Amino acid sequence: MFPRIVYESFRRQPRRKLLAGIAITLGVAVATAMIAVATDIGDKINRELRSYGANLVVTPQEDTLDVEVGGVNLKPPSDGAFLSEADLPKIRGTFWHHNIVGFSPMLPVTVKLGSGSDAKDVTLVGTYFNKPLSFGKEDFTTGVKITHPWWKVEDKCGDGVPPRPGRVEDSPAACGWPDDNSQNILVGERLATKLGKKPGDRVEVAGRQLTISGILSTGAAEDDQIVAPLGLAQQILGRPGVVRRVYVSAMTKPQDALAIRDPKTMTPEVYDRWYCSPYVQSIAFQLEEVIPHSHAEQIRQVAQNEGTVLSRIKGLMLLITFAALFASALAVSAAMATAIYERRVEVGLMKALGAGSFAVSAIFFAEALLLAIVGGIAGFFAGALLARQIGRSIFNSEISIEPVLFPIIIAIAVFVTFAGSAAAIRRAVKFDPVFALRGEG
Amino acid sequence: MSTAPGTLLTPKQVADRRAPSPHISMFGRMLLRAAVLRRRRAASALLAMIVAAAVATAMMNLYVDVQAKLRTEFRNYGANVVIVAKDGQSLPTDTMARVESTLGAKTLAVPFSYAVARTKDGQSVVVVGTDFTRARQLNHWWKVSHWPDAPSDALVGMRAAAVVNPKANPNRQPFELTFQGKAIQLAPAGMLQTGAGEDSRIYLDQSEFQNWTGVAPSTIEVAANGTAAEVEVSIRQLAQLLPSAEIRPVRQIMEGEANVLNKTRATLYASATLVVLTSALCVLATLIGWVFDRRRDFAIMKALGASEHLVNGFFAAEAAALGVVGAILGFFIGIGVAIWIGRVNFHAPVVPRFSVFPYVLAGSVAVALISAILPIELLRRVQPAIILRGE
């Protein structure tokens, strides 16, 4: 009898059930989407924060002082210690290699620009642009295109026409970012203006004729410098296989009390926890482990601020998610209360026929449960789709929903539907059947 | 206005006695009685309205204010504009005053001057003169063990410290530097750690630095507040004001900020829209139930001969009144919520924006009217007798 009443109730009043079901579906969809966005926002914003550039720098342990004013390096060229280029791919072998977005080695060399008496000293920096490397079985590319996203290269050849084959002898596509294995260079914006050079022109650098493949604009010291493939800088310096420092861009966890503790004073358990958390300090520690004779340091301007920005945005999304959950719970409750209130006559009839309060409530709760489960499932998938759409249109990447959320969302939907129905059911049950049947009240 | 019994009233007196027009007062009385007699249902509808209006207000307030809050947060990344003297010259002496008067008091500008000095054993080291109070405000990320307070105190970079004082020096022994033959004795007040170029430098107070080297500031770092467009305007103003200097935006900071801010804004917008839509749905569900519930009132009015126009007007007026009251109460609650969120999350109050009010009001009334019109449209087709029979 009980299942039949519930079944018939759905069959005979499809419109009312549909309305309540839609309210539950929409409420659950919004809740699911917001929970998914809020749980993933930290990761997404962390990735966006990488557009501030590297947050770690690795230098040789025995490094001497940088003597640099306004982008001009005043240090003697061969002075100081170096890191070995061959060690760099090992960065991908650290514990947190999935968090390392990219790295770029730098090798500044002071070179003579031009020839004869009007030659002048400029800094040439050797680096990776978009270098393919491999570590173990893993192939990856890295370089300044990833770690320094604000570097812009004017990629039109001088007169604005796309490069023609034959115009620049070394490589047909000599405009824009140079190839990592080429002998082409980028010239900083201000330096290029001073020299009156355009992409495609040639300059004499340290006695070699090199092709300018692009004009680099960074808004920083590189605007007065020359940027070249690392191999070329090593040739000019006469020290193959060396780099001066490595910039590493890593996604980190905001710093807390554990992060700033000295690993030497930790107990083994605390040390494990510290080592296995992607703090900027522990990533620096792991970089020192894989690169011999190195010293890794956080770049505080970038590393210190991203934590605050990240926690602010995460906190904000959390609060908004609460608002969304609250609003959808209210919407579901309101819809359920309305649906039940409309059926007082039915309740009156059931009670007049001798049904007890318990039996009547049980029917309503069974109906609510069914609605909550069906609406919850539909809402979960609609919400997952919505979250994916948000992720795609805002962050250009998927916001994935943890499957573990599914039972939680269904449980929340059932709970909210019950809570929303409870007051209305109690009132409906308490209502005098005589008045209900007479249509009063 | 007492008249003796039996005297005939003039039409004017009759009109006066009836004033204010009974038609209007009846309408108003019906509205009032409807609210009072069905308190519970009316209260639950009003509650839904208030919550929706509050949530919408809070979201709109946050959407506008959070961007400003985040921008202040992003200023912790330091300068976004740099003023550099052309060709390694010094900036004119009045530059700082002119920059400050153009950009206003809220903008932070810090002068820097550079020189390469030699240590006792002939090592080159970059010495920088600056204003410590300002530098401290601008560069929050500098990790400084102790900021200098005496004029001859120097702030020594981590790596520079190893050069000027080869043995780790906890007892602050003074060290000597020479610049073009002029020597100076400096006491290391504290250590500076940034992980960048600053670690290799020694920082001095500007006046002390200038007395010693005679070099005036060549760089001013500016933390310009405001949107990207406002910063552009500041840059253009500065370029006009200082023809002898180059004004450069710090692209790393400006682009990173724009990127993160745009993404956050878009997420916030999507979330706020979802939340506002959900609360509108809540109002819709409650109000439709409320109006539908009163189909007997509707039927009685029609049975007593009320015109369709009047009945529709009655329900619409009721819904509109609900919308207005809900919007006003909800608005103030919403402002409260926004201020609370500002406190909790940004540790700074959100400024209430009353410009949001018309939107909240219009939205609330519109949602209320829609929720009233939908059930009335359904009921209109039904004969009053059927409703009164309770079918």
Compact summary:
The complex is a heterodimer of chains A (441) and B (391). In chain A, 47% of the residues lie in helices and 19% in strands.
| Global structural class of chain B | alpha+beta
Shape of chain A: elongated
Q: What is the strand tally of chain B?
A: 10
Task: Provide a count of the helices of chain A.
Answer: 12
Mean pLDDT of chain A: 84
**Main β-sheet of chain B: number of strands, strand sense, barrel status?**
6 strands, mixed, barrel
* Unreliable sequence segments of chain B: none
Spans of at least 5 consecutive residues with low confidence of chain A: 158-173
Notable features of this structure?
A: 441 residues; 2 domains; 10-stranded mixed sheet; B: 391 residues; alpha+beta; 6-stranded mixed β-barrel; 10 strands; 58% helix; 16% strand
What does the secondary structure layout of this molecule look like, with pairings?
The complex is a heterodimer of chains A (441) and B (391).
Chain A: H1 2-12, H2 14-49, E1 56-60, E2 68-69, E3 72-73, E4 83-84, E5 100-113, E6 120-127, E7 131-135, E8 138-142, H3 144-147, E9 152-154, E10 184-188, H4 189-195, E11 202-205, E12 208-217, E13 226-229, H5 230-237, E14 242-243, E15 245-250, H6 268-275, H7 280-290, E16 294-298, H8 300-341, H9 344-352, H10 357-395, H11 405-430, H12 433-438
Parallel strand pairs in A: 6-13, 10-12
Antiparallel strand pairs in A: 1-15, 1-16, 2-3, 4-14, 5-6, 5-15, 7-8, 9-12, 10-13, 11-12
Helix pairs in contact in A: 1-10, 2-8, 2-10, 2-11, 8-11, 10-11
Chain B: H1 11-18, H2 22-37, H3 39-74, E1 81-85, H4 95-103, E2 108-119, E3 124-130, H5 132-138, E4 143-144, E5 153-157, H6 158-164, E6 175-179, E7 182-193, E8 201-205, H7 206-213, E9 219-223, H8 228-241, E10 245-249, H9 251-293, H10 295-303, H11 308-346, H12 357-380, H13 384-388
Parallel strand pairs in B: 3-8, 5-7
Antiparallel strand pairs in B: 1-9, 1-10, 2-3, 2-6, 2-9, 4-7, 5-8, 6-7
Helix pairs in contact in B: 3-9, 3-11, 3-12, 4-8, 9-12, 11-12
